[in-house]
Amino acid sequence: MPTKGDQDSRRADVAEAVWRVLATGGFDGLTLRAVATEMGASTGLLTHYFTNKRDLVRYAHEIAVARTDTRPLRTTDEPGLAALRVALVNVLPLTLETTAMSRVWVSFWDAALGDETLSQAQRTRYERWRGRLQEHVEAAQTRGELTRETPAADVAVEAAAFAHGLVVQALFDPDRLPADRQLALLDNFLAGLTGRR
User: Fold this and answer.
1) Which residue, 196, 193, 195, is CA-closest to 81?
2) Percent of the chain whose predicted confidence (pLDDT) is above 90
3) Which CATH number characterizes residue 44's domain?
4) Sign of CA dihedral 130, 158, 82, 195
């Protein structure tokens, strides 16, 4: 009988294989067979963990959340506009690792639209993210870096939409939108916000 350490090690192997499949094929390419092939194992092994594709997709979502929430982030001690910039930079696909993470999340959106549990989880993540962006916007407004003419909540939605729109474009056209170009476009976007006076 396998020990708990063996089981934990095997679960870690499964998690890594699921992540590699997600990073290359997205949620659409996520199947028991694909994960088993990635592990060099049989699909029978995976049926100990997942009874169907939905279980596998929900587990993959847990892995994506854990990896996203524990990844190293850029930080700044400067509040307001500088903190808003850093928060937006942290979602852009600027490195191989963040590009893989972005590919996973973009592919997840389709899976989430067809599964109410995953859809609710995504809505909650967006609410939290927009809330954090709104705090930065409010600080920028208090510091006089941004006008109060547009409600902070609306600016946060606009910033989130800009960042995720740039993510999608960079994934589809990485040669035209390398890291330095993404950062320049972000700075142009933020300059546009400060120009609303």
Assistant:
1) 193
2) 49
3) 1.10.10.60
4) negative
The backbone region for 108, taken as left when phi is positive above 0, alpha when psi lies in -120 to 50, beta otherwise, is alpha
Specify the higher pLDDT residue, 158 or 2.
158
Nearest CA among 53, 97, 78 for reference residue 140: 78
CA distances from 47 to 37, 44, 52, 172, 188 (A): 14, 5, 8, 34, 50
pLDDT tens for each residue of 135-150:
999 999 999 999 989 9
| Domain membership of residue 11 as a residue range | 4-68
Q: Tell me the C-alpha distance between 197 and 182, whole Å.
A: 25
Q: Measured between alpha carbons, how far is 86 from 18 in angstroms, rounded to an integer?
A: 29
63 with 141, same domain: the answer is no
Q: What is the pLDDT at residue 1?
A: 46
**Number of domains the chain is built from:** 2
Chain center to CA of 132:
15
Contact 118, 57 (CB under 8 A): yes
Q: Give phi and psi for 90, each to the nearest 5.
A: -65, -15
HSE-CB for 1 with a 13 A CA cutoff? 1
